[in-house]
């Protein structure tokens, strides 16, 4: 699997198959992670701003300063297919 794949909803690196979401038929999604996409549908009906609020705490928990995390999400999410 390409380790440079990123979820096209939240931007999370999808570094292993177990992190892939699933299509309606249960097969793995090459576009979205398991946290964002299950059985062919998004797991949460959120706006891009709400997704930023969901993602920022995870980045902070991994050691990133909150201001940097917000800036990264604000710059990344608009370029992902879910938000275009």
- The count of helical stretches stands at 2
Number of strands: 4
Q: Which consecutive residue ranges, at least 5 long each, have pLDDT under 50?
A: none
Write down the overall geometry: globular
CA-to-CA gap between the ends?
25 Å
Number of domains: 2
Helix content: 25-40%
One letter per element, helices H and strands E, the order comes to EEEEHH
Beta-strand portion reads: 15-25%
Main sheet specs: 2 strands, antiparallel
**Strand pairing plus helix content: what structural class?**
alpha+beta
Question: Radius of gyration, Cα only, in angstroms?
Answer: 13 Å
- Whole-number average pLDDT? 94
Please state how the strands of the largest beta sheet are arranged side by side.
1-2
Would you spell out the secondary-structure blueprint of this structure?
Elements: E1 20-22, E2 28-33, E3 37-38, E4 41-42, H1 48-61, H2 66-76
Antiparallel strand pairs: 1-2, 3-4
Helix pairs in contact: 1-2
Task: Give structural attributes.
globular; two-stranded antiparallel sheet; alpha+beta; 84 residues; 30% helix
Characterization of the model:
With 84 residues, the protein is of the alpha+beta class. Helix content is 30%, strand content 15%. It has helices at residues 48-61, 66-76; strands spanning 20-22, 28-33, 37-38, 41-42.
Quick overview of this protein structure:
Helix content is 30%, strand content 15%.
């Amino acid at each position: 699997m390409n380790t440079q794949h990123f979820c096209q909803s939240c931007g999370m690196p999808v570094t292993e198959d177990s992190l892939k979401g699933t299509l309606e038929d249960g097969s793995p999604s090459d576009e979205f992670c398991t946290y964002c996409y299950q059985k062919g549908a998004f797991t949460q009906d959120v706006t891009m701003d709400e997704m930023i609020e969901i993602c920022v705490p995870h980045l902070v928990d991994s050691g990133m300063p909150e201001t940097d995390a917000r800036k990264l999400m604000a710059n990344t999410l608009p370029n992902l297919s879910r938000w275009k």
